[in-house]
Amino acid sequence: MDARAGAVEALKTDPEAVSIRRSLEVYYGDPAREAAMDAFYARFVRRGDLVFDIGAHVGDRVGSFRRLGARVIAVEPQPSCTRALRSIYSGDGEVIVVEAVCGAEAGRVSFNVNSANPTISTASPHFIRAADGAAGWEGERWDARIDVASRTLDELIGEYGVPAFVKIDVEGYEDEVLAGLARPLPALSFEFTTIERALAQRCLRRLTALGFQAFNLALGDTMALACPQWMAAPRMAAYLRSLPYEVNSGDVYCLSRMRHPR
Q1: CATH class of the domain at 3-255
Q2: DSSP code of 17?
Q3: Locate the Methyltransferase FkbM domain: which residues (predicted)?
């Protein structure tokens, strides 16, 4: 067992990590899932690249980016998750953990914690309202609130450099993350949900204004692009509007002219 796997196993039995135990069990220890993830992200990430993981949670994507040879800035506001990230990637100088929300402005924000399901904790009150009473979201409760730091993408770029790829998965706060970016990047992804379709449309408009030109998507956690051809923003907007509610979520992948996927 390598050091990272050992750290994950230790966290699974750590009473202080009980809230994220299910995430650790789901996201670590499946070689087939890790191989599929690595093959998927190899389209966007090359050895020596800098990658931002915005909403890193317990770091399964961080692991993939590291296996591909990238340096990673892992941004995550939940203390239970940042403790896990620092434990799993301790001694790895190519991973920097930033305990913060990424948003439109630097400062402090109120962050809503779902204690029973931390993976959907969020800084977005709109997301919580959208989930209230929605099919498939029954019983979800955001039962705690913490005050956390907020950093912008532009601020992170100024401190750490220009990333080749940015993964954004922040439960309905994606448009706020993009509001803190003032330049195109080679590639990024943002999560969408069918309970908040308008948010994805706002993200597409923002990305188009920044100069992103080609879009694709992956549904759920499939690690596969859903469309054989990359498309312009208007077609992607229509595609997202046409998705059945049951799709629930996925990720939109966005390219500028600075790099094309392999």
Answers
A1: alpha beta
A2: G
A3: 53-193
